[in-house]
Amino acid sequence: MKLLIVEDDLEAAAYLAKAFREAGIVLDHASDGESGLFLATENSYDVLVIDRMLPRRDGLSLISELRQRNIHTPVLILSALGQVDDRVTGLRAGGDDYLPKPYAFSELLARVEVLGRRKGTPEQDMVYRVGDLELDRLSHTVKRAGKEILLQPREFRLLEYLMKNAGQVVTRTMLLENVWDYHFDPQTNVIDVHVSRLRSKIEKDFDQPLLRTVRGAGYMMKEEAAV
Amino acid sequence: MQRLLGRLTALYRTTAVRLSAVYLLLFAACAAVLVFYVSSMSEGLLQQQMREAVAQEAEQIERIFDNNGMNGLLRTLERRARQPGANLYIIASPTGEVLAGNVASIQPGVLDTEGWTTIPFRYQRYQEEARGTNRPMAYAQVNVLSNGLRILVGRDLGEPENFRKLVRQALMVALGVMGVGALAIWYLIGRNALKRMDRMSDASQRIMAGDLSQRLPTSGSGDEFDRLSESLNTMLGRIEKLGEGLKQVSDNIAHDLKTPLTRLRNKAEAALAVGDGADHRSALEEMIVESDQLIRTFNALLMISRVEAGQAPAEMSAVDISGITHDSAELYEPVAEDCGLKFTTDIAEGIEVKGNRELVGQALGNLIDNAIKYAEGSDGEPDIRISLARRDNEVVLAVADSGPGVPEDKYGDVIERFVRLDASRSKPGTGLGLSLVAAVMEMHQGRLELDATHPDRENNRGLTVRMVFPVLPD
User: CA of A5 to nearest chain B CA: how many angstroms apart?
Assistant: First the structure.
């Protein structure tokens, strides 16, 4: 995966570059809006990480310009502005995801990976499979080893999101955003409780765990044998 | 003297005085025009009368000559000329030589034209010839008799002249009275206004000096000064409240942010002192947790101040509050159950309010989170109840818990930022939850009500928090 980071804070950019390289992601860095626009137009990237406040051309205008030039690379906006309306304006400008500063690197990494693989994820797949677990999006049924598991509607959506991003880390805030459509910090362990309920339903009578907790980051659906 | 001058300058600068000055000028101009019009009209009338009288007399004299001859004419003129305030009489030869009359000299040429002299001329009487220089003016009628002699009958202009003088004097007096009156009114009204303005600006000076508890004086008459003072006072009240909030917040920030920062620093120091791999790791993890908490507090503070400053998010629309309540209840229900709480809901369907889903959801989340925190572990059968109902013109979203509750006199306090009644602060949280809810309610033009869930109980009276929204206008 190839990444472009447009960030004027050089120290933060250097830290991100190091951390992403350790995670096996190649990246270019631009320190202002104009050079960011140039790089994003000239080269091909999987994900653009763009700071909202940039010298020479601000992040939102950079994104609108890219979209106008018919470049639809997924964009993650980084911003010190984290309020509801800031997020809305960011996404309206053409951003695909919005992460307020300060953020945990694990959160950024998880989101970048999900955005980067989005292209390859078949949205139109009617059935998601992880190991012997099967989720049918059309009939809203879940089976494990051929045996039907009954889920609440929200549990179904939770599992659907986890399975859609199988093999990737999904953070708690990503779950809250995508399953409940809330963007605030729930403060308590609400998501963990929901995940553990879901987990008990899909793993109760089976030996092989599928839904794993990734320490300090979130959760991941993955077949044990493939690790 | 200097003081008086300064006062007068200040007086002149007041609007009242300037206005009266303009009015005075206007009135004076009108009065002058009026007086001049009246006087010129009456002057014309006087002249007309005079002319008629003179013409009549000239005719009379002509008749006397026709009837009584030259002797009769001379006798009559002599008699008339001797009367006090007599007209002017001249009998002249056809060549213009003065033969008889009561005029010593006359502007040359007057006798040459027959009829009414349209231009006043100068003359002098016998008695006055000796006295001097001032030659009065007169109008006259010149007639030619049947024997070719010319007679002149004239009248002095003194009379209309006097009248004009009188009118001018009257005008002067009137203007004088007007001027004095205006000055007096200026002084009274202007000074009064000035005094009140001075009091107001004195009060503002004190307020600017930092005493926000000062208020502008009102006289209680309800006039425009009072209205101005009152609205400024309302504004001051709001500013004072904001200022107090700010002060309280900065005090609390100092305390509530310094504490975790100190802990953070202590942990780093302790980890450095130990210096072992595993310890480092756990210390660093703890530090991340600690800084996350700090970030959380900052975010909540920022959000509250933004919502309070009235910067409403762009997205205020009709939102399905029934749906939001269902979502939030469903989100928190497993947590409550895991904590051993009975969780019940009573949510009316299909209710909408004008609002922002994200903010209402977060506020409700805060309330449920609080309820879980405080009901957990309370005696008896701890429970939480969430209800949504329409009550008259309001929509009431309530979260009731059976926890220890809040003493009634502390209801105001718990809404303040960073206030936590639990002095030991053993429960996790920022102390900002209810402040945010209050701010969100203010933004939604609603209000927050606090109440005991079980007012009849001795202990565990519980807390019911109601978010009261105005109903959506049809």
Answer: 24
Residue A37's φ and ψ, nearest 5 degrees, are -60, -45
pLDDT for res B421: 58
Contact yes or no for A186 and B299 at CB 8 A: no
Taking the model in full, what pTM does it have?
A: 0.61
Query: Does residue B359 sit at the A interface (CB-CB below 8 Å)?
Result: yes
A127-226, CATH topology level: Arc Repressor Mutant, subunit A (1.10.10)
Q: Does B362 touch chain A (CB under 8 A)?
A: yes
Angle between helix A190-203 and A172-179 (nearest 10)? 80
Residues 160-199 of A with CB under 8 A from B: 180, 182-190, 193-194, 197
Model pLDDT for residues B153-181, shown as the tens digit of each residue: 888 777 667 777 887 788 788 778 877 88
Q: Which amino acid is at B95?
A: T
CA distance B216 to B202: 9
Q: Which of B295, B327, B358 lies closest to A184 in CB terms?
A: B358
Write down the domain spans for chain A.
2-118, 127-226
Measure the CA–CA gap between A193 and A172, rounded to whole angstroms: 11
CA B296 to chain A, closest CA, distance in angstroms equals 8
Contact A88 B362 (CB under 8 A): no
ipTM of the complex: 0.80
Contact B442, B452 (CB under 8 A): no
Instruction: Indicate the length of chain A as a whole number.
Output: 227
Residue B135 CA to chain centroid, in angstroms?
A: 65
The average pLDDT across B83-95 equals 80
d(CA B195, CA B217): 11
Rg (CA), chain A: 19
Q: In the A/B pair of chains, how many CB contacts fall below 8 A?
A: 63
B193: left (phi over 0), alpha (psi -120 to 50) or beta: alpha
One-letter amino acid at A63 equals I
- Torsion angle of C-alpha atoms A143, A149, A154, A158, degrees rounded to 10: -50
Specify the 3-state DSSP secondary structure of A89. helix
Contacts of A193 in chain B (CB under 8 A): 334-335, 338
DSSP A54: -
Which chain B residue's Cα is nearest to A216? B285
- pLDDT tens string B426-440: 555 666 778 888 888
For the cut 70, the answer to whether the pLDDT of residue B45 exceeds it is yes
User: What does DSSP say about strands B463-470 and B342-347: parallel, antiparallel, or unpaired?
Assistant: unpaired
What CATH code would you report for A2-118? 3.40.50.2300
Quote the CA–CA distance of B79 and B87 in Å, as a whole number. Answer: 12
Give the model confidence (pLDDT) of B286-309 as tens digits. Answer: 888 888 778 877 777 777 777 776
Residue A146 contacts B where some CB pair is shorter than 8 Å:
no
